[in-house]
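Q: Structure tokens for this one, please.
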Amino acid sequence: MVADFIPDTLDITAIRVPKLVGTPAGVNDPISVYYQTASGGAAWQALPGNPYDGVNSSWVNVSVLGLGAADYITAVKWDFGTIPVGYQERDMELQSTVLTVDRNGNPVLAGDVIVNDATVNYTDFNGAQSQTKASSLLIKTPRPVADLDKTASSGNVNDGGLVTFKIKLLNHSLAARDLTDPVLADLLDGKFAYVPGSWQVVNKPAGAPDPLFELIEDYQGSGQQLLRWSWTGASAYDLGINESVEVSFQVEVPFGTIFGTINNDAYLVDWGNAELDPYNGVSTRNDANDLDSDSDAAETIYSNRANTYVNGRASMDSIKWVKGQLDSAESRFPDSGETVPGGLADYRLVVENSGNVPIEDARVLDILPIVGDTGVVDLSPRDTQWVAALAGPVTAPAGVTVYYSREVNPQRTEFKANVPGATDPSWSTTPPATITEARSLYFAFDGVTIQPGELFELSWPMRAPVGTPTDGRIAWNSFGYFGTRVDTGSTLLAS
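A: Here is the predicted structure, written as tokens:
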């Protein structure tokens, strides 16, 4: 049994009947709740509904007890009977109002501390037991209570998409004063871009003005946009008790924004009251970024956060450029370069991470042109009409290992399984002594992470053998590539 004798500075307004939670459910005794009143003295009176089954908790308002105008609750007790092993009580609570003058006629002043004791009496294997615990309540001056909330239209967004944020400021019903001249702010993460003209007032009290809105680019050199809404000056307003204002705005997540969680906070950065309390769940911090532009980075402000997760979009692109001896500029498929018999043609292969997820351990396979060849991944004929020969080693960036093979149709299970007629490539990092014998090139990006938007280039010279036809025949080249995405560890399909 738990008993709470009420201090003479509190007026109880509601009593909560708790619940009991345990396994197996439903083997607890019923819960009975009793109360004493000033007029009833030491007599315990049963709360309406006794006994309760303890399955769910519920509030009982004192107003339904039929007390006289001058009567009040002086004590409450909860009788749990026998509590099974492993069971726990939940939601044993009282609601009260702090009196301005206590039951003895003494004023209740700011700075006073109200101490409330609760005592539990029970019997265990050692016999009768009793424990008392105290809770202290500091009385403050009357003030507003700010409840700040920020929400996002979606917890997930694709890069290139939009997110709508809402910021709600409530002067909570627990407040004792209006909230004067509030100023809200949002310092957008650098991965967000405010959509011009998108902000609007979602809700406000009747007669309240719209706030003054400011958009400040590159706030204090941070590279971030500051949005600020002020109910000051020509838009001055005092937010009454249990009144709220709510604004919304949109941001764009630029295409290519790297995957992952973006944290974004809304702030209450200024107000006209000398004292203010935050409601439960509202964070307190210093105004380190001086979001109200008053040059005071040590003052206290309040915040609430909404997180947005940018979905991963894994994508790799690779382009093969060629510049023949007769060309003034590079070309790519479907165009072709031009050279002369015995002349050179420079190949440049560009591998790009075109997604928003870093790619690691990429692989590229290039089978050089030969009459009768097929594609690397798509085995359709390439229609090559003459043999193009490697004329020099491959130039590759740091971290990329180049392998050479003499095989014209190498086994390539990473790219394509069960290729008809494929042979063991016997890859080597050393090119053949007669370099024109190299017919396939393999590039391993081991330990290399290609960041979104990053490019890697590989280049090498090719030669058209003496005697190559000059009647417009073409030697086609193609390649395959894939990589591993760092967010899931899965391998992209070879392309």
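A few notes: The first strand starts at residue 2 and ends at 5. The two ends are 72 Å apart (CA to CA).
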